[in-house]
Design brief:
The protein folds into two domains: about 15-130; about 145-390, 3-Layer(aba) Sandwich (Rossmann fold). Helix content is about 50%, strand content about 15%. It contains 13 helices and seven strands. It is globular, with a radius of gyration of 22 Å. The termini are far apart.
């Protein structure tokens, strides 16, 4: 099973791990009294249904993640139970069943850790952070384990660019990050431009304890930016092709320009739904997701990636420039390559879960899909192309 440092979805729940989890379940359910056996069976089947997996696969995913990932998985499950209006006693029992299962695995020598359960304040705080109006177009709805992946993605791009932005911004007083995710980019902009107020807009809040000059605003880009015209010196938007329908991009870019002050800058960062030198496993993963993207109205032909500089011009911006970089994927790419493997492994796991939810793949098929792609990432010389375009709003 995975070590303590790995997160849910970081490892492959292959046939060997599933078989091992099945043995743990067999021991766990053996020689139980009828009522206890019935309760445990109901609880485990409900957890499996939550993960849209068989009982053995669900147990394998719990055991494979390690203590930190196990805690996050238990928290996600508790939130699902609360949303289904399960009684507090039922929620407690089902979470304690998971803890007892991990304890059994520990006693059998399968794992070396114990499951710590989220507390009631943990669950309530997490529920408060969930979006009130999520976008039905978003391919990867944010879940509580997504923060690490988004931060890793940020660090990989920052290391490649050796900067947090390429626009020639000088001493901005107000900065806006649209689709801010965890808020990490904005946190670092607070450090780079010490007097500035940095505002992050997203469907849900990011990480806790932001810098004093950082403000989070809940909002949906598709509903328009809730800010006055000419309000920001620098407006930044990154990696929203998985959430913003391709037909909505021109209007969205015009809105970014609208809230930028005359003389201020807008910067867009996007990549295609493709990779450089993909292996067969990675290519299959990319192709499997294309129909799903199309059904959500998202870009499947890399139109946005190719046109972000043109869209800035069409929105009335001047001094537009475009830069392209390639982020290596795999050990050949050093630290950035390793970061990208971790990022893509987590993202691919989420894609697999979405494909399961849409009935495209079984749980076992999804894990096989991720495993095939991961072999390409780790052993090939793949890279992910990224385009950065920026433009200036004409001075008044």
């Amino acid at each position: 099973m995975a070590g303590d440092g790995e997160r849910a979805g970081d490892g492959d729940v292959g046939a060997g791990l599933v078989a091992q989890a099945g043995e743990v379940l067999g021991h766990f359910l053996t020689e139980r009294k009828d009522r206890t056996l019935q309760a445990y069976t109901i609880d485990l089947d409900d957890f499996a249904a939550f993960l849209d997996a068989s009982r053995d696969v669900a147990a394998a995913r719990l055991l494979a993640g390690g203590p930190n990932a196990g805690w996050h998985l238990a928290l996600d499950y508790a939130i699902d139970l609360r949303r289904r209006a399960r009684a507090p006693a039922t929620i407690d029992r089902r979470l304690n069943t998971l803890r007892a299962l991990v304890r059994e695995a520990n006693e059998l020598g399968v794992v070396e850790w114990q499951l710590q359960l989220p507390t009631e304040p943990d669950i309530s705080a997490a529920l408060e952070k969930l979006p009130a109006n999520d976008s039905r177009h978003y391919l990867l709805p944010r879940h509580l384990g997504e923060i690490d992946r988004l931060d890793i993605q940020h660090y990989a791009l920052r290391e490649t660019l050796r900067a947090n932005h390429l626009a020639p911004v000088a001493e901005p007083a107000r900065v806006l990050d649209v689709g801010c995710g965890t808020g990490q980019w904005g946190f670092e902009m607070c450090e780079e431009f010490v007097p500035a107020l940095v505002v992050g807009l997203d469907l849900m809040a990011g990480k806790p304890d932001p810098p004093p000059r950082y403000r989070y605003v809940r909002g949906n880009v598709l509903q328009g930016l809730p800010f006055a015209t000419d309000g920001f010196d620098f407006v930044h938007q990154r990696f929203l092709t998985v959430g913003l329908p391709v037909a909505s991009w021109p209007a969205a870019v015009r809105d970014l320009a609208r809230v930028t002050r005359p003389g201020g800058w807008v910067e867009l960062v996007e990549g295609p739904w493709a990779a450089e030198r993909p292996g067969p496993g990675a290519e299959r993963l990319i192709d499997m997701a294309r129909p799903l993207l199309a059904s959500l109205g998202l870009d499947t032909l890399d139109v946005v990636y190719r046109s972000i500089d043109a869209q800035l011009r069409e929105a009335g911006l001047v001094n537009v420039a475009r830069h392209e970089v390639s982020l290596p994927i795999g050990r050949w790419g050093g630290d950035v390559g390793s970061l990208m493997v971790t990022n893509l492994r987590a993202a691919a796991t989420r894609v697999g879960e979405v494909l399961q939810a849409h009935g495209t793949l079984s749980a076992e098929g999804a894990w096989e899909l991720v495993q095939g792609a991961q072999e390409d990432w780790e052993n090939g010389r793949m890279a992910y192309p990224v385009a950065i375009a920026y433009g200036q709003k004409p001075p008044a």
